[in-house]
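Changelog-linked ticket: GLP example.
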Amino acid sequence: MFTIAVTDNYEQASSEAFRIMRAVLDKEHPVLGLATGSSPIGLYKKMIADHNSRGTSYKDCVTFNLDEYIGLPKNHDQSYYTFMHENLFDHLDIPEENIHIPAGDADDEEEECVRYEQLLKQYTLDIQVLGIGSDGHIGFNEPGASFDSVTHITALAEQTIKDNARFFEGKTDRVPAKAITMGLASIMRARKILLIAVGANKADAIYNMIKGPLSTDCPASILQNHEDVTVILDKEAASRLG
Ligand code: GLP
């Protein structure tokens, strides 16, 4: 079931997202599923500000990230490991051992997928933060990804490579071709989903996710089957919902 909030701008969208996150952080041992991309950055800024001003502690918090590029060393400036540390973890009191991100630089990537999924299965995510790709991907589950998928290796869709080239000096050939991602079934196990999308280039994906058929053509449409999904949008991303 979708609860949809259409906000005036990104700042408001981030405040609304933080309001939902805040309730989860009140739990004793929160387990957070986190995402990269530009969409959750405002939420992360608010989590940091709240940690600084109100002293909200992350010492008992465990996190799992959705995905990671294959082939980038952890310290690469575009690895999701670096992104998460720079945009969130380095500014909180979360112990490093409580942070889980798929190792895109593992010697055996298949084995890494199995390890990650097994670890993830030992927990229940209280919340999974999501962005959405312009092609409807969540995590790196591209169109065609199986609804039954767990953590796996995936090839990035052409559209995603184009979208993400902006982080690689605009050069599509610098974008890693593959990634490790939680699967759609892994994501669906979360108690609550919080999806943030802003901008006109997300309008089609948001429409297909909510109003389109349940179809692997739009991986995010699987969320139609989840009982607790909050979708936070700006007017542009919501423009096709009518
Ligand atoms: C990336 C990530 C996704 C993210 C998406 C949208 O490819 N793997 O998890 O949701 O892009 O990114 P943005 O929020 O920057 O639009």
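Closing comment: Example verified and attached. Residues 35-39, 66-67, 131-133, 139-140, 160, 164 surround GLP (CB under 6 Å). The mean pLDDT is 97.
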